[in-house]
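task queued by scheduler; priority normal; single chain, no ligands, no partner chains; default sampling; output format set to structure tokens
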Amino acid sequence: MRAAMITCLVAAAMAAALASRALGAGADHPPDHPVMLDKAPPGLNELINQKSRIHGYFVNAEDRFFFAGDAAAFHAFLKDYAAVKGIAGHQLFIHQGQGRAKSPWDKGEGKPADWMLEVALVSWREGHAGKVDSDPVIADHQAAKPRYLAEVHFWTAGSIDGQALAVPEGVNVVREKPGDLRKVAPPAVEAPVVPVAPLAGADAPSPREAMDLAAKHIGIKRAAIEVAEAYKGIAEAKLKIAMIQVRAAREAVAAEEPSVRRAKQLAEGKVVSEEAVREAEAKLRSAMVSFDEAEAKVHLARAELALEEARRKLAQAELEEAELRFEQLRARLGQGR
């Protein structure tokens, strides 16, 4: 019972920790409910709450807002977007196909969307979320940067002619091949792009610095895998030790059981006193308790091993994400102006 309880507690803690990392928090932004981002720069909340918004949702510190309208509405939106100051650059991503307004948890295709506004905390994209308040160095670093980044995504197969776009000055256009709107990246709503630090804006790092930071991030994740492997090895060693202890405890129980039977036989023949029987039984009970404790250690060691294996898989996934970020960053630099 004690072993099962320990295993359940460890497994529950492991599941909760992994679920919080993998799933995060999220919900819809209904179009008729105003969204007011905390400490947003002037104009950003007004941009979000335009009447053409048809859907929205957030996951962790990232929000996506979908819009539908004609060319005049989109050009007015772009003009207002370009006028928003205090965000980490202005970028317009052009995608092939029809945009779909839907949340990750929605079933079905979703509503047709012509464009989307993606907003995220800069600290979240840079991996500092949750550390700004606890780490003064990170806090000072982030204080010198815009709080939010905001990027516009446009789909060419909607109701707006992509060949006749009028992009305001200061908005950087990103597409797969400049001048070719028929070959672009898949819609972000269908295949979400792994977050990449913004490359535009006076406060953003230079392209070379961004590449260096991405490469260092990959090195950190590879080191995390090595650490996870080391902890996994420790957990495996603990499990072997615990199993050895179980075998020794089982042998001790097996050795004490005949002693109890022998003591009872001798007590019946008045050869030894009842006190000798009680002493033999006490030794047997002690051996059985040691066996239970050894079994509990085995269950705990197995749970720890499962946890370290899960951490190893998580570290591998984070490495793959970092490598994908690096490749996306390199591709984006190759498409820049």
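post-processing summary
- Residues 1-24, 128-142, 178-204 have pLDDT under 50 and may be disordered.
- Residues 223-324 form one domain.
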